[in-house]
Amino acid sequence: MLYGEKNKEKLRSMAFGYGNKKEGSVIPKYRLNEESIDPEAARALIENQLLDEGNSRLNMATFCQTYMEKQAVELMSETLSKNAIDKSEYPQTAELENRCVNILANLWNAPRHSDYLGTSTVGSSEACMLAGMAMKFRWRNQALRMGVNINKRKPNLIMSSAYQVCWEKFCVYWDIELRIVPVTKNCMTLDMDTVMDYVDEYTIGIAAIMGTTYTGEYDDIETLDRLVGEYNRTHPNLPELVIHVDGASGGMFVPFTEPDLLWDFRLENVVSISTSGHKYGLTYPGVGWVVWRDQKYLPEELIFKVSYLGGEMPTMAINFSRSASQIVGQYYNFLRFGRQGYSQIHLKTQEIATVISEWIQKTGMFELYNTGSRMPIVCYKLKEGARYEDGTEIVWNLYDLSDRLRMHGWQVPSYPLPDGAGEVTVQRVVCRADLTYNLAEAFMKDFWQCLMDLKDAHVLTNASKTGKYGFTH
Ligand SMILES: Cc1ncc(COP(=O)(O)O)c(C=O)c1O
């Protein structure tokens, strides 16, 4: 950077605003200030710092919740100081968490008389880690009993290449081989024709996805369950093969929009399900959930006891202390919306996604990967040889369009599809509950304007860009 020494020093500090009694003096940004400052000044400086950040409501890249009701926000602010791990000091908060786990187990059709159990987490990543560890420990215990040489090879986990990065982390952190079933341009989900070719006696499980990060599609878990059932019947002397469902976005969406779809604990071999409460659970980040269909799928070694009302309570978590306010927010949503409310909200979001996708299709320039008729995700690529209506050639790419949309405040990521279809670049619009018809209309108007601006543009900047925008949520 071309800052002079004097300016460099200024840029490393913050100045107080006009009228403040410390006006003219500066405080450092990267060192602790010597003297304390008053709360209003501290707040103003931080508010100023955050001013030019994107508007979260216009962020079409994220699945994470960007709106909650005032009452929920107040309740969450009031409970920020409660520590979720301190079950003894906050037994009523622990009770709310317990209710949420039961609500989810019921929503996911856990067998009535099973010993299901679950926990809140910081998000799906932690929930996936816990589910993955449970699979690994259970596999090891069974493998040892069945005489599999566990030192000969690393255990492996199978999933499609459309996995979210948390699974790669899980495999690196816990020394597991991630066996990837590549997606193809025509099948962006777990390939049922080949998935079983990847299984062996070192497989800890198969992780299926309800709502992939890339296109929002669902793996065919009903078919997978049948294949896994057959495998277990024909391999009685090997560790039982199990399915974990990563329902980060679908887990709290599908039960309300497609209640008859078989993907959850109604399927015998689905042993655990995780989700992000902060996605279609409609709670601010970070809260996630994981539920096991029966205690036997969560080995004892992973359960720790914390004190609770003079007794003990089992917990499993990677973190220890964290605020309970998100759990309270999640329970507020369950209580406030109920089954009907969640259905209405999600069906409306789906309807808006469909309107946007139909509109995008009508431009004639794009080919849709997801029309938003299931998960409310609109995902598309540029049609090969697409032109404007008047025949003008399209010389821009989706990265240029993302940049243009950003000029209007909209964050709409473009990125390559995962291994197996990596040569295809797509763009994705994630619709959330706070995307009203009004806002959707504004989006389509701006989108149209961007298409027109690009038609006349002389300078395009992304001709060779292959980088990814923030699409991982
Ligand atoms: C399929 C899938 N799994 C896991 C995650 C991680 O979720 P979280 O951000 O709640 O940790 C995501 C996030 O987008 C996801 O889409």
What does this structure look like?
It is built from 11 helices and 15 strands. It has 473 residues and is of the alpha/beta class. Helix 4 (91-107) runs parallel beside helix 9 (325-362) and helix 10 (398-407) crosses helix 11 (437-456). Residues 467-473 have low confidence and may be disordered. It is globular and about 70 Å long. It starts with a helix and ends in a 17-residue tail after the last helix. Strand 10 and strand 11 (311-315) form a beta hairpin. Pyridoxal-5'-phosphate is lined by residues 63, 123-125, 128, 164, 166, 209, 213, 246, 248-249, 276, 288, 472-473.
Features:
473 residues, alpha/beta, Aspartate Aminotransferase, domain 2, Aspartate Aminotransferase, domain 1, disordered C terminus, binds pyridoxal-5'-phosphate
